[in-house]
């Protein structure tokens, strides 16, 4: 994401960037989009020679009126804020009030979602605050080509989240049925106690390995099937899976960037994987703004602006 000026900046565990100031107005950045010709306002030229104009969106947030700030053919989605609300002390107070922090984060996402309904947007990270409009303009202007390419890629697309679950009991039952043909299983009844112990250990190890293999095959098959409908896709295995006794075990989390004309096809494909007795199913949510696919360039440390 475009980073705010790092002059007197404080980072938090939430990844927010807070301009240290009080009693002054600043600007909260929600994201970057393209400016339409009919939205161009009276242009002024700042001290750096960057042309900056402002046009109003039909949106409001807890921070106030949401506006578009023109930087060439791009626009920053911003609203005016009191910098005193974004000092280290103010942020720490919010961190101590999870309900308040949740409301602020929801407001941030609501604005991004509303703009996303109208046009492609590169979402800014939560808590991106600048002391001056010129700082935002300079950061975006220096990377306008890369940002325009990102927006062209995202145009007309939504993000969909998909989760794949398996019923471990059904998978293990199927694997055990296959084990009936394993020579080790057939030798078990006639084996001595010592040998029977090692045969059981082998069968248990094989059961665990084969169950994991089948689970991986299910996750990969579901991912590949849905990725064929997407412009781009990201997948990850959950940090921890359910224990052996759990029926529903999440084995895959994936995000898909899908053109809107293919959204119904994606949803139909997910619904077609509803639990059919094979021991797995998918759930989905969306459409969302493309948070997982909208990585705009970061400001380098030597490009900081003075507040």
Describe this structure as you would to a colleague:
By secondary structure, the chain is of the alpha+beta class. The protein has 2 domains: about 10-155, no CATH class; about 160-290. About 35% of the residues lie in helices and about 30% in strands. The chain has 8 helices and 13 strands. The chain has helices spanning about 90-95, 100-120, 135-140, 145-155, 170-180, 185-190, 195-225, 265-270; strands spanning about 10, 15-20, 25-35, 45, 50-60, 65-70, 75-80, 120-125, 130, 155-165, 230-235, 250-260, 280-290. Strands 3, 4, 5, 6, 7, 8 and 9 form a 7-stranded antiparallel sheet that branches. Strand 1 and strand 2 form a beta hairpin. Helix 5 packs across helix 7 (about 195-225). The longest helix has about 35 residues, at about 195-225. It is elongated, with a radius of gyration of 26 Å.
Topology record:
Blueprint: E1 9-11, E2 17-19, E3 25-34, E4 44-45, E5 51-61, E6 64-71, E7 74-82, H1 88-95, H2 98-118, E8 121-123, E9 129-130, H3 133-141, H4 144-154, E10 157-167, H5 168-179, H6 183-188, H7 193-227, E11 232-236, E12 248-259, H8 263-271, E13 280-288
Antiparallel strand pairs: 1-2, 3-7, 3-8, 3-9, 4-5, 5-6, 6-7, 10-12, 10-13, 11-12
Helix pairs in contact: 5-7
